[in-house]
Amino acid sequence: MPPMSSWRSRVACGFAAGPTAAILLAACGSGAPPDAARTVSAPAAAPVPPPAAVPRVVLLGDSLTAGFGLAPDEAYPAVLQRRMRKAGLTIDVVNAGVSGDTSAGGLRRLDWALDGPVRVLIVALGGNDALRGLNVDDLKRNLAAIIERAQARRLTVILAGMEAPPNLGRAYTSAFRQVYQDLAATYRVALLPFLLDGVAGVADLNQDDGIHPNAAGARRVADNLWPYVERAVRAPVRHD
Fold first, then answer.
1. What's the CATH code of the domain at 198?
2. Core-most of 48, 65, 73, 207, by most CB within 10 Å?
């Protein structure tokens, strides 16, 4: 939870002067000595409000987002955070990636991930659903629930698409890809068609496992997301 500033107020006291002094002297009688003026309390200073909470961009994802095999400052959410600062944007980027997570796992921990002043949610889930060959209808149902709950909070949602391995067959890979396209159209959210575009299958941008981006690959992933993120955080805040 964001820190709260303490509220303080002071009461300043001073000597009555001018018309105020004349009224006080008249009330005490004309025989009061000149130095008998009484002190009066000035109005209390207005309390200092707490600083505004810094808006957040939350990345709900799996090991690709968590930065498996990378130093914390090499994962693509950290790269996006530096881009924010460089662009002069006061936005906190929250890495809510959990290695091994599926779309069902992301849905279960959504409320925790959205705690605080979240403004934008990036949904980067589905890779582990594909690796396990899970039912695409379940993937669609889970991602839809995540989007609906985020939009109920008036958050901007960015959906990062994933691709299923080709060894699962053309029918599965096509249906898997269609899930993201259908959700983007139904809920009118921005869609990055493939989070790992330009990274997947490129040996120089991946770790030895051929699945997780290395530091250079993570920077490329951040490049893929940055136009969507920048547009979202610069857009006027919704109050409807």
1. 3.40.50.1110
2. 65
Asked if residue 25 and residue 77 are part of one domain, the reply reads no
Residues 14 and 125 in one domain: no
Q: What is the pLDDT of residues 70-94, one digit of tens each?
A: 999 999 999 999 999 999 999 999 9
* pTM (whole model) above 0.90: no
> Which positions are annotated as active-site residues?
63, 209, 212
* Integer CA distances (angstroms), 229 to 77, 82, 119, in order: 11, 13, 11
